[in-house]
Design brief:
By secondary structure, the chain is α+β, with helices and mostly antiparallel strands. Helices cover about 15% and strands about 30% of the residues.
């Protein structure tokens, strides 16, 4: 199905449920060392070390030709993802369940499956939620981890549309860190993940077409920072489950903060102190 055959017919969209695609990649340490540099850390990872949670996104790139990209820089709909007739794509959240760690140097197979497609009516118009499950397995066929990814598709904003009401964050942080986003940082993460979504690097497109005040800080990048915060303060324990939800977007227009409650919750706050993302963490 081509980009021109998008639809809002839920029955047609739900026909994509069960659709699968497979990919395999060798988890070389190079991209992860570049991520360390992006985080302004000394690149010290080496072959045989464990892949940090969320850093698998530097592998299994979608090999979409430039001519197959949509107006937003994403791959054309109607191939693996259903052809939703809504222009804006956002990362709504996800969940990781880890069986055993992936080690740098091993080859991993990823099996992706469309789990669900649901149409809803939101405050600003129709929404379509697409759930994708990615099962990652080692060369021996044994499971390493699964990722459940939730995407939401929506209309472009109307001029003068009221802003989303802020959600109050938890008030029990024991660790707080400040993140100062920049266009260079967002470009580097986009390059590492081969993500050509224009909301992360084309500020004119962000403002003029999608109505954002600045570049969008990647949802998966925020989740990765939260998982990293939990891992660094988890007393050496390995994360076995990480369930996160995006509440409101973060931009490159000012510093934001990430927080850890010392037991099982991490979250990100906007520069104004509203909740941007929240995650529940379980340790092995």
């Amino acid at each position: 199905m081509s980009e021109t055959e998008r639809t809002m017919d839920q029955a047609k969209l739900r026909a994509w449920i069960g659709k699968t695609e497979e990919a395999s990649d060798t988890i070389h340490v190079g991209p992860a060392r570049l991520m360390q540099a992006t985080l302004d850390r000394e690149p010290k990872l080496k072959t045989g070390d464990e892949l940090p949670l969320g850093w698998h996104r530097f592998y299994f790139p979608t090999e979409a030709r430039s001519s197959a990209l949509g107006r937003d820089g994403h791959s054309a709909m109607g191939e693996f993802l259903p052809p939703v007739a809504l222009p804006r794509r956002m990362w709504a959240g996800g969940r990781f369940d880890v069986t055993s760690p992936v080690l740098f140097g091993e080859t991993v197979k990823r099996i992706s499956t469309i789990k669900n497609v649901v149409m809803k009516e939101g405050r600003t118009g129709p929404l379509c939620f697409v759930t994708v499950v990615h099962d990652h397995r080692g060369a021996d066929g044994a499971g390493r981890f699964t990722e459940e990814q939730s995407l939401v598709f929506r209309e472009d904003p109307e001029p003068g549309q009221p802003a989303q009401q802020p959600t109050a964050p938890p008030a029990n942080a024991v660790v707080t860190e400040t993140i100062t986003p920049s266009p260079v940082q967002l470009f580097r993460y986009s390059a590492l993940t081969f993500n050509s979504h224009r909301i992360h690097y084309d500020v004119d497109y962000c403002r003029d077409v999608e109505g954002y005040p600045g570049l969008i800080f990647h949802g998966p990048f925020t989740a990765t920072l939260l998982a990293d915060l939990a891992a660094r303060h988890g007393n050496g324990k390995r994360i076995s489950s990480f369930d996160y939800r995006a509440i409101s977007p973060l931009y490159d227009t000012g510093p934001f903060s990430i927080h850890w409650n010392g037991t099982d919750t991490v979250w990100a706050e906007t520069p104004d102190g509203a909740l941007a993302m929240k995650a529940k963490v379980e340790f092995a």
